[in-house]
């Protein structure tokens, strides 16, 4: 034990002595008093508002700039056409309640199909603005711009407000919508595609609605004994363009039926079909009163399915119709 203590003592003698900490340098006292500080000549009476800007912001912003803000990339927001479809149907009801002739010439299905195509035209315009339009969208733009586009006031207001926007946080959003397939729909309806059918418009569904109205019209025509206008409508196939007008029949119905000039001679002849010969023309007697034969005014009405001729009743036809109803 004594030998170990002696070795430790010899080892400590070889080491340098420990250094003692030095006292800090005393801080000199100021040579002036607080009353000698320069005071402002005109103290400000306006309170400066508090800001939460970082202290380093003023070091990087030049005079006149708005500052450094973090801007993210533009976000793509999917379009939702559920409200637009309901708006188009309500606008059709409003127009039909004021104009009965419009409701008889333009069905709701054709009116809706026309506005649905205009909605996809607006989507194609926004895609072309950002340089992401597909070949089908460019063709749709050329097709729609080749005609005079007239839409309802409510639908026009909706489409004018449909576009890119900036939220309250400064983020920019682009309105996009995935296109349907080449057949005009979004595939089989299941848990993966039901969202597309609920928020977007399938053109094929709108076309089939128009075809359903055509079939219903033909069924009502077959149930009647006679039809006012002998029009042969050829139903297009499933993949046939809806704007294709069927070729007219080879033998047309005569544009005008010869009728007696005297109202008391005989009632109106039965309506003729295609292929029946016209009735013989009756010659007025010298003592008969000459009446001006009213020229029927042919009115052509254009709908989305093509041209259809419509003819209003003349005064002579209306008179005979009232006599027939009174006797029955």
UniProtKB/TrEMBL annotation:
Chain intervals with Basic residues compositional bias: 20-32
Region of interest called Disordered, as start-end residue ranges on this chain: 1-52, 238-300, 309-328
Polar residues composition-biased segments: 1-13, 42-51, 314-328
Listed transmembrane segments: none
Protein name (record): Uncharacterized protein
Organism, as annotated: Brenthis ino (lesser marbled fritillary)
